[in-house]
Fold:
Amino acid sequence: MIHFISDLHLSPKHPQVAAAFLRYIGGPARGIEALYILGDLFDAWPGDDALVDPAARGIADALAALSANGTKIYIMQGNRDFMLDRGFAAAAGASLIEEPYALSLGETRHVLMHGDALCTDDVAYQQFRTMVRNPQWRAAVLAKNLQERLALAAEIRMKSEHAKQDKDTEIMDVNIAAVEAAIRDADHADLIHGHTHRPACHSHVVDGKTCKRWVLHDWRDKAEWLEWSPEGGFAFRSC
Ligand code: LP5
Ligand code: MN
Structure:
């Protein structure tokens, strides 16, 4: 059994989500072969030294216990936790993976992404994304102390919320041409991603081939995952 999750947005503001996560890790996730976390595990991640926070450490410890029990854990950065790096991955017993990440399940090839790169109509966001992925920007930010980075994170969040008020909801979804290009780049593999908070299984016909696009749930009050098993294929589950 393999599970895919994303967009938990863990934060001290929503303790019920952290509680759902701990329930999930100690329950349905126990004994699975692999867990893929496709971005935005955290609502805002200022850098791996944030592990000094007991709540963040508790999340890493829970993942590390799952990993020690035999589950392989893979984690990808999202648009909220783009500063999450090898330090967190090591503490969580996880491997950091980069998108697009190719994964074969049974006979079918898949590509895993966070999903934000597909939202190409949101030009202001794509500029922001390019900035925060720039190694020089990252190094300059990491040279600041944790307190300064937390303040900067709050400022960026505020600006982002403000910017979203003027955006059409349409531009905050994927651009179909970008989806088709991602499918083509992956030699017509199926896609699995999160980010848009519009869970579904879409079909796209690209160059005459029908490909699927699984969009994961964000988490509110309960755990939400997409599971895959050799016998049952894919299913959305929650607890
Ligand atoms: O996140 P969500 O769903 O609300 O909105 C996203 C896009 N916004 C973002 C920004 C993140 O929310 C910011 C998260 C900060 C986390 C911590 C960072 C720690 C940093 C390290 C310490 C410094 O991803 C939003 C999309 C939306 O999804 C839908 O797809 O529209 O995009 C924006 O709103 C971006 C704005 O349009 C433009 C950017 C404004 C911020 C500029 C700040 C510059 C400050 C520079 C400081 C050096
Ligand atoms: Mn996201």
Q: What stands out?
A: The mean pLDDT is 97. Residues 3 and 227 are 4 Å apart (CA to CA).
